[in-house]
Amino acid sequence: QVQLVESGGGLVQPGGSPRLSCTSSASIFSLGTMGWYRQAPGNKRELVASITKGVILDYADFVKGRFTLSRDAPTDTVHLQLNNRKPEDTTVYYCHATGTSGRMDYWGQGTQVTVSS
Description:
The protein is an all-beta fold. It contains no helices and eleven strands. The termini are far apart. Strand 4 and strand 5 form a beta hairpin. The strands form two sheets. Strands 2, 4, 5, 6, 9, 10 and 11 form a seven-stranded mixed beta sheet that branches. Strands 1-3-8-7 form a four-stranded antiparallel beta sheet, with no helix packed on it. The radius of gyration is 13 Å and the shape is globular.
């Protein structure tokens, strides 16, 4: 079982450079896709950004040009840089990973991000 440990959530102040981090208990090379989803109350969980096999980046339209996903292979970690934040970015963010075959799904516990105006 792969454990995903998230950090970096909380109250995000204007002018800051917040970053969400997710570290896998398994080698990042044993994973297929790794990234972040978010879910607002009453809504479906939706993809924010992901990286597949270390090279293929995918971003939701609502964060393109604002958020940046990166991978730090030596630490088995992905980072999500939250730039140009909007009030609607306030929600719970979940780290997600799949096995290399895509059949297994792993989730972090979720971290609250609150964008302060």
